[in-house]
Structures are given as structure tokens and as C-alpha cells.
């Protein structure tokens, strides 16, 4: 937690320093606010039911547990199946805490006067980014059944190995959602102020720390293997960087842009444009 608070203080100082009169005020993004806010909130709202359905879908019973063989786990992941169960509860709480802080961290962007001017647009991009990440997560987690590490652990009771949410180890949603949030903040900050070189690398390096803390604790909670955590990090990073970049690309010449349309007569459609 001390590491996380230090990072927050560092970023706060960074944002306050940027929020000066000579800063760049024009947003680098094009946002379709009404469509993106309504669409992303609908997806995020539906995701609540999706998580519950996924937990039921990944149910394990005693027969399922009996079929598990730790020897079949790849050598890179196998040690996670034998971690100390006495640390599970504490690690679970820490992972949830770091996740919640990560998701809330883009609020720090509002410390910058320039970024506050585009607050609603950034909110639209942020919720859209998480909506895309949720869709990718469900598209992967529902069809892929991978038992959680704790179900292999001989020190864990059969009661704790059975029930809902025991075979949805791949990939780590906690890590993915955390990385999406922190990398989104780093992407927006570096895009808006056109930060390049080592400063950009430093900001993204700081953004990587919270998801790493989430991932370490998810493993020590018996929830995910190393490859689950690594995959979650990569997916989250792709969303946190990629979705804002797509909004940015639509402003450039020689690129593809997409614009939804709604006529006065109620007809719906979309316009795809390529600028040369």
C-alpha cells in the first residue's frame, strides 16, 4: 500500500505541474459522447449479470476436482498450485483493494485544468475502454474452462475447491481491468501533453505497478496462474492504450473514421470515411 500511495503522490505532483497556463488545452481525441456514454454504460450494466452467469458457468463439483492432476500443469505455472492457503484471504483483500484504487485512479487526471475542460469526453472514452475490455473478457472466459490454482492445492479442503467460480482461471479479469484503468490514464496524459521519450516510458512504467500488485496478490490468493495474470495484463494494456488511440486516429488524415448516424425520421446507420 505504501508503494501505491507513493505513486499517487508522484502522479499528483506531475499533473499539478502540467496544469499550468502554458499547457496544451486542445483535446487530441474525437468523441461521440452521447453514443459512447449510452452504449458503454449499457454494456457495463449488463456485465453485472454476465459476471454472475460466468460464476455459475464455472461451477466445480467433487468429481471435477478428482479429475485434476497437478502434473499436467505446465512447469511455469505449477508452483502457484502449491502456495500457502493461509495467505489466501489477505491476498484476496489486497487484490480487491488495489483493483478498486486502479479503476478510480483516472480521476487524478482531473487535477489538471486542461484535462478538466474535456472531462465528459474523457469519461466517454474511459467507459468505452472498459466496455471493450469487458466484452473481450466474457468472449474468452465463457468458452475457456481452466481450473483455478487452489483447486489443485492438496492443502485446500474439498469444500473450498467446489462451487461456483472455480474453473474460470483464464484469464485474470482483476489484472485486466486494473491495467486498462492505469494505462488509460497514462495514455491520456502522454497524448494530451505530447510527452515523448523517457518521460513517456517512466509514466507507463508507473502505470504498470498497480496491475502488477493486483496480479501478485491474485496468485497468492489461489485464483490465477502466472500465465492468467500475464494475459490479463496484455489484454488490459491493449485496451487502455488502443481505445484512446482509435479516437485519436480518427482525427488524422489518411485514416479510417467511423461515425454513427440517427435521422429525424428515426432511421439509424453509420458513416465510414477514409481521408486521403
UniProtKB/TrEMBL annotation:
SUPFAM superfamilies: Acid phosphatase/Vanadium-dependent haloperoxidase. Gene3D superfamilies: Phosphatidic acid phosphatase type 2/haloperoxidase (1.20.144.10). CDD domains: PAP2_like (cd01610). Transmembrane segments: none annotated. Coiled coil: none annotated. Pfam families: PAP2. SMART domains: acidPPc. It comes from the Bacteria. Residues 123-244 form the Phosphatidic acid phosphatase type 2/haloperoxidase domain. InterPro entries: PAP2/HPO (IPR000326), PAP2/HPO_sf (IPR036938). This is Phosphatase PAP2 family protein.
Amino acid at each position: 500500500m505504501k508503494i501505491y500511495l507513493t505513486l499517487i503522490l508522484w502522479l499528483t505532483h506531475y499533473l499539478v505541474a502540467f496544469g499550468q497556463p502554458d499547457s496544451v488545452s486542445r483535446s487530441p481525441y474525437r468523441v461521440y459522447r452521447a453514443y459512447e456514454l449510452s452504449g458503454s454504460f449499457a454494456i457495463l450494466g449488463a456485465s453485472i449479470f454476465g459476471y454472475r452467469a460466468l460464476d455459475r458457468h464455472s461451477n466445480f463439483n467433487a468429481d471435477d476436482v478428482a479429475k485434476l492432476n497437478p502434473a499436467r500443469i505446465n512447469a511455469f505455472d505449477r508452483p502457484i498450485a502449491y502456495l500457502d492457503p493461509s495467505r489466501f484471504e489477505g491476498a484476496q483483500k489486497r487484490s480487491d483493494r488495489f483493483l478498486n484504487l486502479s479503476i478510480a485512479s483516472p480521476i487524478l487526471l482531473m487535477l489538471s485544468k486542461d484535462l478538466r475542460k474535456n472531462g465528459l469526453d474523457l469519461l466517454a472514452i474511459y467507459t468505452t475502454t472498459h466496455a471493450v475490455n469487458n466484452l473481450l473478457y466474457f468472449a474468452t472466459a465463457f468458452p475457456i474452462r481452466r481450473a483455478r490454482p487452489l483447486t489443485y492445492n492438496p492443502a485446500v479442503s474439498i469444500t473450498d475447491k467446489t462451487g461456483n467460480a472455480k474453473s474460470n482461471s483464464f484469464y485474470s479479469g482483476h489484472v485486466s481491468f486494473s491495467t486498462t484503468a492505469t494505462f488509460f490514464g497514462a495514455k491520456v496524459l502522454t497524448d494530451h501533453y505530447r510527452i515523448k521519450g523517457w518521460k513517456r516510458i517512466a509514466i507507463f512504467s508507473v502505470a504498470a505497478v498497480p496491475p502488477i500488485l493486483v496480479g501478485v496478490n491474485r496468485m497468492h490468493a489461489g485464483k490465477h496462474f502466472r500465465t492468467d495474470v500475464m494475459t490479463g495484463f496484455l489484454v488490459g494494456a491493449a485496451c487502455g492504450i488502443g481505445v484512446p488511440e482509435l479516437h485519436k486516429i480518427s482525427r488524422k488524415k489518411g485514416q479510417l473514421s467511423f461515425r454513427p448516424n440517427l435521422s429525424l425520421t428515426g432511421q439509424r446507420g453509420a458513416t465510414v470515411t477514409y481521408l486521403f
